[in-house]
Design a protein that fits this description.
Layout lengths: L11 H7 L1 E6 L16 H11 L3 E5 L3 H14 L5 E4 L19 H9 L1 H21 L4 E2 L24 H15 L7 E5 L20 H8 L1 H9 L3 E4 L17 H11 L5 E3 L6 H19 L4 E2 L4 H13 L5 H16 L10 H4 L2 H11 L2 E3 L10 E5 L14 H4 L8 E5 L5 H5 L6 E7 L12 H12 L3 E8 L1 H8 L8 E4 L4 H13 L3
Parallel strand pairs: 1-2, 1-8, 2-3, 3-4, 5-6, 6-7, 10-11, 10-12, 12-13, 13-14
Antiparallel strand pairs: 9-14
Helix pairs in contact: 1-11, 1-12, 4-5, 5-6, 5-14, 6-8, 10-11, 14-19
Length: 520
């Protein structure tokens, strides 16, 4: 058990600071920081932990080994043990290289359509492996699973992060993931309450408005949250969405009616209520650091995630308590819940050898293999052709390193030329495309800050040009089933094609292997 000092030993400011989780780079050195607007330099981060006493850190970037050292470093600065969190909905390898990355949760939903019990078993194994690898590198808070029901194909931010489009499937798979993770001493998180699945707006950029009434929410959006709570999920993350039927004025993150009235009182949730990142545009653009922090705490949030200016957020909440705007008991209740959560965690114990022998790779491979979709005729070899890779941003496509199967396998089948198309590709370049047999690999999925769920204009133009000139020999789509469906509707039914939810090297190897073998 982790030692946590009594609440009576903490000043008001120290208590409020425990409610703040700050963002930091997983890399060790300041020159490696990738998002300087959100990730402080080391001296600032150390000051926030040692002098302000913030309650936790959310990490992004770096290798698994480097993050392990980072976690050790952070805990050494803290008087009260830290919550060390990461958005690892697709396994620790989603954020930290060297660990295992799983296909997006939607892949499990696809398996569930054919074999529900198999999908549940794999979801449970995925949760257990994610928790085990998190602990191995020093993380104790898994910001997963997503329990949103993604019933809007145009959703640019949830999309394949959700387990599926039906509340029953999402409930079964999310609870299995939580059960698997709970076999290890880590905290789990259901997100994003009261539901972020039916919107075409990315809350990282602006505030989505969802028009549904309570009857609709109780039937579709809320069952997975209720199931997660009954399973013992440790935290629930709020959504930066506005539901006028529940609160005419405030977004959910700042709404007492939603966080306290519905989640805490009606649903009986006793764990941690954590905001989604307060630097996101949906909140930051309208409320700023101080007012957002005060409103979120007043609404019932226990943890303020990623305020842009952590000291300012702390001081604002302290001032709100001292002025009577927030009752002191509101702070005491949150800190007591945080203390109880931390007390359930074990002291830092790094086990990096686990990543060398992890069974997680077998689970990830099984999910990728069993969720692949195939169609069309058997593959026809070529003597010389083009391997065309379609991505959002060619300069930020980490899944396309020089040894990945998407680059190394096609040349062995005759596709010895390479073309990369991204959002910035001029349409005039596509019009000058060489008239050679072409294999197209499309990497497309919903992601934060992407802004839209579908294909880019250059991607659409490329596919149209190749079809018009009868040069499209085969297609692999990685990521979004909605993008795959959009493309497939325009293709000749005999064209060899494969869809994979994952886009990592395991997924690439399996998808391309299916295409070349003609296993349709």
């Amino acid at each position: 058990m982790t030692f946590i000092p009594p609440l009576s030993d903490l000043s008001l400011r120290a208590q409020v600071a425990q409610m703040v989780v700050v963002r930091a780079s997983g890399y060790l050195y300041d020159r490696q920081i990738q998002y300087p607007a959100w990730e402080p330099p080391q001296d600032t981060l150390k000051h926030w932990i040692k002098d302000w006493g913030v309650g936790g850190v959310i990490l992004l970037g770096g290798s698994a080994v480097e993050v392990a050292e980072r976690c050790r470093q952070l805990q050494s600065w803290a008087t009260i043990p830290l919550l060390l969190a990461a958005d690892i909905e697709e396994g620790v390898g989603q954020r930290f290289s060297g660990a295992t990355q799983f296909p997006p949760p939607a892949a499990l939903g696809a398996i569930a359509q054919r074999n529900p019990q198999r999908a549940v078993d794999l979801a449970r194994a995925m949760g257990a492996s994610t928790a085990a690898e998190a602990l191995a590198i020093g993380l104790n808070w898994v910001l997963a699973p997503v329990v949103d029901v993604n019933n809007n194909p145009a959703n640019p931010v949830i999309n394949v992060r959700a387990f599926g489009e039906e509340p029953e499937v999402v409930s079964a798979l999310a609870t299995a993931f939580i059960q698997g993770a709970k076999t290890y001493p880590v905290l789990t998180t259901a997100k994003h309450f009261p539901g972020h699945g039916d919107t075409a707006t990315d809350s990282h950029l602006q505030l989505p408005v969802i028009p549904h009434n309570r009857d609709r929410l109780q039937a579709i959006e809320w069952p997975p949250f209720v199931a997660a709570i009954q399973t013992g999920v440790d935290a629930v993350m709020s959504a930066h969405v506005h539901l006028p039927a529940l609160d005419a004025e405030q977004p959910a993150t700042l709404s007492p009616q939603i966080l306290t009235g519905i989640l805490r009182q009606e649903m009986g949730f006793r764990g941690l209520i954590v905001t989604d990142a307060l630097v996101m545009g949906a909140i930051a653009h309208s409320y700023g650091t101080a007012e957002a922090a005060v409103k979120a705490v007043a609404a019932g949030a226990d943890i303020l995630l990623m305020p842009l200016d952590p000291p300012a957020a702390i001081e604002a909440v302290v001032a709100a308590v001292e002025s009577g705007r927030i009752p002191y008991e509101r702070i005491q209740a949150s800190v007591a819940r945080i203390q109880a959560a931390k007390a359930r965690l074990l002291p830092l114990s790094l086990q990096l050898d686990y990543l060398q022998t992890t069974p997680a790779v077998e689970v990830a491979t099984a999910i990728a293999q069993e969720s692949i979709k195939r169609a069309g005729q058997a593959w026809q070899p070529v003597t010389s052709g083009v391997n065309c890779l379609v991505v959002d941003d060619a300069l930020n496509a980490g899944f396309l390193n020089c040894t990945c199967p998407a680059l190394t396998l096609p040349p062995t089948w005759g596709f010895d030329q390479r073309v990369v198309i991204d959002r910035q590709t001029p349409l005039t370049m596509i019009e000058g495309f060489s008239r050679a047999p072409t294999l197209v690999q499309v990497f497309c999925r919903g992601n934060p800050f992407r802004g839209k769920a579908g294909l880019s204009v250059p991607a659409i133009a490329t596919l149209e040009w190749l079809q018009t000139h009868n040069q499209l020999m085969g297609l692999v789509v990685y990521g979004s089933p909605y993008a795959y469906h959009e493309i497939a509707q325009q293709l000749h039914p005999d064209l060899p094609r494969v869809f994979s939810y994952g886009h990592d090297p395991i997924a690439q190897r399996l998808a391309l292997g299916c295409l070349v073998k003609g296993i349709f």
